[in-house]
Design brief:
The strands form 2 sheets. Strands 1-2-3-5-4-6-7-10-11-12 form a 10-stranded mixed sheet, sandwiched between helices. The chain is 47% helix and 12% strand. It is of the alpha/beta class. Helix 13 packs antiparallel against helix 14. It has 2 domains: 237 residues, Alpha/Beta hydrolase fold, catalytic domain (Rossmann fold), CATH 3.40.50.1820; 210 residues, no CATH class.
Length: 529
């Protein structure tokens, strides 16, 4: 998703601040007892302390009551209670985290756990183990694959910031409009979003940040009764995984970070790189592809012609928006659909090209074309997603709160990289209006960790390669697998045999490349599939 992410002491320092030595054995015992049917085999060690003494009785002593998941019958789900604030447990109402698992198909190999998480921040991870083990059955045979809805997301305790109507209004109009009235409208809606989050969710939004989430993860690990976990996370979940590994390195066996945020940086720095990378993916990859198939989509026989067609349609939508059902399709909505299409060539380029072609003959579009257009434009995130995305990205790291700076920066990026640069002001102004956060600083270094496997394509639009290189440098000892010649977001389980073989060898046998390496991208799709 578009992402416009502080713990100064080490994990041992955190423990020293919270834990008297006499508390450790009691917490370990509580964690083992809580694991129940999900515990490791006899003789396995449970994890060490997970929080201050209060947590031992109130959190580590709970038992996960596994039941079939409502939306994924091959999985088991349970609810876990966590403190509102891990740094002050017992202050404020507790939160609930919904967790899931797929039991290892071959438990004789030993009970190992692979924890996975979702991106965003704001996407649901609860049902993801079902698709994960279907795509990688060997991994599903070797591991209990577990996941969760991060605090603030889905079935877990979550915030409320906007109604559906307010969410639609946030994206109304034309973000490229630089008139004073339009700019003031964008800033006003961003300020109102931040205000609504505080008014409608109270102090909860303060505790929706990555540091709090990784402490939730470690409680989950302890309740599963295992000393170490392996981890897989794409997109924002690389940020989450890097923070977890930094704060709890002794609990990491293996980790795959797929399509990497620059998690050593700030969210502001991460977001400022996206206008360039989305524009690059659009102009250098997608437009060339759709022009190659001009006989099918009639969108122009060169990338320049295809871009001109797209820009003309955007201008037309500015003057004459299209209404279909309850949807209004204007220029911002065209941007939304297009940038969503940049994430994966196989899955999204053909539908996007068909939608763009249908808009060019809208008066004579077939019912099937109109249905595809409606489905495409209705499928852009949600108020629930935004209610997790903005708290995390605004809380995790500091933001420049000078609106004059953002007016200047967004003007530059709107001109150079309009696909995503035009919305920069709306996203940045939200975080510039956000209450100051006291989330601890987390400095990712790789200290105390086994080698971590990182994956990234060179033209990834959302987690751009330049940021991945920066994250790789910060995470000492990591190996970077670069997918050359491609730009998909998410590399594992993406029909690339080279990538999958490397990841499987790492997860199943602990074999990691001796050095950074490359895999070629898979072929681009054809209109016929």
């Amino acid at each position: 998703m578009s992402r416009f992410s502080k713990f100064t002491s080490s994990v041992s320092g955190f423990r020293a601040a919270w834990w008297p030595a006499s508390s450790v054995s009691a917490v370990v015992a509580a964690a083992v007892a809580a694991a129940g049917a999900g515990a490791a085999p006899a003789g396995a060690q449970a994890g060490p302390a997970i929080g201050p003494p209060y947590a031992a009785a109130h959190y580590a002593g709970q038992r996960l009551d596994w039941q079939p998941c409502a939306q994924a019958p091959t999985l088991e789900c349970a609810r876990m209670t966590v403190p509102r604030d891990w740094h002050h447990p017992g202050v404020g109402a507790d939160l609930t985290i919904e967790v899931s698992r797929h039991r290892a198909a071959d438990p004789a190999k030993g009970r190992r756990v692979l924890m996975m998480a979702a991106g965003g921040p704001g996407a649901s991870g609860l049902n993801r183990p079902a698709g994960f083990v279907k795509a990688s059955p060997a991994v599903g045979a070797a591991y209990d694959v577990v996941s969760f809805d991060q605090r603030g997301v889905g079935s877990s305790s979550h915030a409320t910031c906007q109604t559906d109507a307010e969410y639609q209004d946030f994206y109304a109009g034309d973000f490229r409009d630089r008139s004073p009235a339009a700019l003031q409208g964008v800033v006003n809606r961003s300020r109102q979003f931040a205000k609504n989050c505080q008014q409608r969710s109270g102090d909860l939004v303060k505790y929706l940040n990555t540091d709090q989430a990784v402490h939730d993860m470690d409680l989950f690990r302890a309740l599963l009764g295992v000393q170490k976990i392996s981890y897989y996370g794409p997109s924002y979940a690389t940020w989450l995984g890097a923070y977890y590994a930094t704060e709890f390195p002794q609990h990491v066996e293996r980790a795959v970070l797929d399509s990497n945020e620059p998690f050593d940086a700030t969210w502001q720095q991460a977001e400022l790189g996206q206008p360039m990378s989305f524009q690059r993916r659009f102009e250098q990859d997608f437009l060339r592809w759709i022009a190659k198939y001009d006989s099918v989509y009639h969108y122009g026989s060169t990338a320049a012609e295809a871009k001109a067609t797209w820009e003309a349609r955007r201008t037309s939508l500015h003057d004459h928006p299209i209404t279909i059902g309850s949807l209004t399709i204007g220029p911002n909505q065209l941007d939304n659909a297009t940038l969503q299409g940049m994430y994966n060539a196989d899955l999204r380029w053909r539908p996007l090209a068909s939608v763009l072609a249908a808009l060019e003959h809208w008066d004579t579009a077939t019912p099937a074309e109109r249905q595809l257009v409606e489905k495409t434009f209705a499928n852009y995130l949600s108020p629930g997603f935004a209610a997790a995305f903005f708290p995390v990205t605004c809380n995790d790291t500091p933001w420049n709160r000078d609106l004059a700076y953002w007016l200047r920066q967004s003007a530059t990026d709107t001109k150079k990289y309009p696909l995503v640069g035009a919305r920069e002001l709306a996203y940045a102004a939200t975080c510039a209006s956000w209450p100051k956060s006291d989330a601890p600083h987390v400095k990712v270094t790789g200290k105390g960790l086994p080698p971590i496997l990182m994956l990234n394509s060179v033209h990834d639009p959302a987690t751009y390669y330049e940021g991945a290189l920066r994250a790789h440098k910060a995470l000492n000892g990591s190996r970077l697998l670069t997918v050359t010649g491609g730009g998909d977001h998410g590399q594992y389980q993406n029909s690339n045999a080279c990538v999958d073989s490397v990841v499987d060898a790492y997860l199943l046998k602990g074999r990691i490349p001796a050095h950074d390496m490359t895999c070629p991208s898979k072929p681009l799709p054809t209109p016929a599939g």
